Predict the 3D structure of the following.
Amino acid sequence: MKHRYTRAIRRLLPESAVEPVRGMRNALLLPRRIAAERTFSRSSRSPIYLGADALRALHESYSVPAEYGYDKQSLLVRGQERARQVLGLPGVSKANSFLEIGCWDGMVSGALCREGRQVTAVDTREEAFDARASRQGVSLLKADASDMPFDDQTFDCVFAFDVFEHVGDPEAVLREAARVVRRGGVFSPIRLPLHVSVRPARVSLNHDPLLSVPLPEVSDGRVRG
């Protein structure tokens, strides 16, 4: 919803007024970002594992919606909804080349292709690749996200939905994402595992120390919340 408001404001305001408004918004968010940076700095560099009781309590608190299905229509609708979410991310509206990590069926990428974008999607298993995504123009590849067969700075936008809790070496995947996204592009691991904020974190290769938290040893990227 907020991205709709953002697009509406951009249409109503002249381009010269957009940057001052963005600056005011960033200033208002600065205390929260400082608090987030402090939290990151105090966090453990080693994995912290949740016990069975904590996991059970989380499952009871955040149940899976009943309408979350895997039939063909559900995959189509969810792909369209998630594609709109990707396109609504800051810095993505003018992106042309996309990479989806952990695509599973590939229908999110298929919806992006229907919007005129060039999309590659990778997953370690190919049995779930949906033929509809391929017909829509997605380049579906079986590949390990920690060692992807792409040149440096290939994509304008790299994104992943609910992926990092499933990979054996999240740091390696994060490094690869930072490697293949072009400088000035965006990497958005949407809906990260439980230890990360429920808001999407975003790695941007733009230099912006005011709005960013350093991402250790990943190029010169930054994590934005």
User: Anything to note?
Assistant: DSSP finds seven helices and eight strands in the chain. The longest strand covers residues 181-190. Residues 1-41 form one domain.
